[in-house]
Hints:
single chain, 366 residues, mainly alpha, two-stranded parallel sheet, two-stranded antiparallel ribbon, 4 strands, 4% strand, elongated, disordered N terminus
Amino acid sequence: MPFPRICPQIQRKNHKSVKGLVDAAKNFGWFATAIGNQIVHKVTGIDVIAAGTLAEKKEGERDQSNQTIPDSFSIYQERKFAMESLKREIKSFVASSEPKVLFLVDELDRCKPDYAIAYLETIKHIFDIKGAVFLLAADRQQLENSAKSAFGPNLDFEEYYRKFVHREIALPSISGDGYQNIVSKYVSYYIEKEGARHCFMKLDYYRVDEISNIISALKLTPRQIQEVFRVLGHIFATTEDKKGYLLWCLALGTILMAVLKVGDPKMFHLLGTQELDSKNVVEYLKTLMDSDGIDLWFKLLLTGGGILIPEGDTLEDLMIREGFWSVENKSHERQDLAQWKQGWGHYRRNRISEIHEKIEHILQWS
């Protein structure tokens, strides 16, 4: 549950008022948890018995005593008291702090839709306390999806949203340098760490740059990037004696498929099951990157078995057909293609399919 967070420095200065505030938030929070799906079903149709039972149970666990609420009216009164108690504690806390107190609510968009809306409906009742500012960090589109899931597709979200948000600041898109910074930090956190984790892939500048480029091309969010690295961390984990031994095409193919699994699951499946021809793949790559990137990833997919090859055609035929080679330079370019084949370890054409299967398997148990 995304309870508001309180700064440690404030806790130290106002220990007594903080304790009262936290206790009040817990009491009311348990009510909010229990009434979430009821608010969604019908804004005023709160199942007070369920809410009261859960709140009483939680409070009983803290006080090491179990009490029974006799009737629905008493439960309603308890909920009302919890709300008033929380507001009173917040007012007292704000009065002891200068100039304002920020309550940070994070990851609300990651909650189930019914709970996310219930939380918004609940905390709006204490927005009016002077000196208290609630800061919501959330994906606006995801909140809109949650609201429409709760109240129907015809909901005027702009009007609904205005009840809760007085000011809104949209964070800028991640820049190229921003992606580089995130990737560099996640490489050391998820994939390789001195004395702790060893990576089967050789982690040089080129590999890190290639990870960053494909992630940037698909414009993944920080949360999606984290998921990509979680997958890569599992796949590339190895012992110290095997560190950096993975063949370069296997490394590149794994990076590409992990990013697609998170950023474009449909394309991940089509490549993994060899359902796309060369024209489809080139058109897709053109939507993501410039010509240099297209050449690299196309050769990778072609030699790794991610592209459907018509009967009677060769890899060389497809390279010419898609404009990567000219007929005159065919013999010279063939040597380059041979290096790509060697980068996969052998001439089998199902490496992309093997990576696809491995990623699917990892996600089932991780």
